[in-house]
Amino acid sequence: MDRSAPRDQIGLSLGAWGAVQTTAAGVAIAVGGVMRDASLAQASAATSPASAYVPVFLLEVGLLVLALILALPMWGKSPVSAVLPSESSRNPTVDGAELITILGCKAGVSG
């Protein structure tokens, strides 16, 4: 994880992430509602009201498949291997405190 932000601005990045996530959720709800309403308006009286949700769920499935395809190149890559030194320069015995330090976690683990 890149921790290049100054300590006094970490909260700012967390707040920005929350704002982006909330905005994305709101847009998703609005788009889903518009799609449902448009499908319901075009449906005949003989069809079930639940059938208006089919296009919304099909869009969700399509976006899920797209996300899986985009994530496929990352399959099998360990995030730990990116931060640990290479095998030739690393001590083969790494204790828990050293691993926590290497991974950038807080060393306040009780054991």
How many extended strands?
0
The largest pleated sheet is described as:
none
> Approximately what portion of the residues adopt beta-strand conformation?
under 5%
Q: What percent of the residues sit in helical stretches (DSSP H or I)? A: 55-70%
Number of helices: 4
Strand and helix order: HHHH
Overall average residue pLDDT:
77
What gross morphology would you assign?
Answer: elongated
Salient structural properties:
4 helices, 0% strand, mainly alpha, single chain, 111 residues, 2 domains
Sum this structure up briefly.
With 111 residues, this protein is an all-alpha fold. It contains four helices and no strands.
Layout of secondary structure:
Layout: H1 10-42, H2 54-71, H3 79-83, H4 96-103
Structural features, described:
With 111 residues, this protein is an all-alpha fold. The protein folds into 2 domains: 1-76, no CATH class; 78-111, no CATH class. It contains 4 helices and no strands. The longest helix has 33 residues, at 10-42. The model has no long low-confidence stretch (mean pLDDT 77).
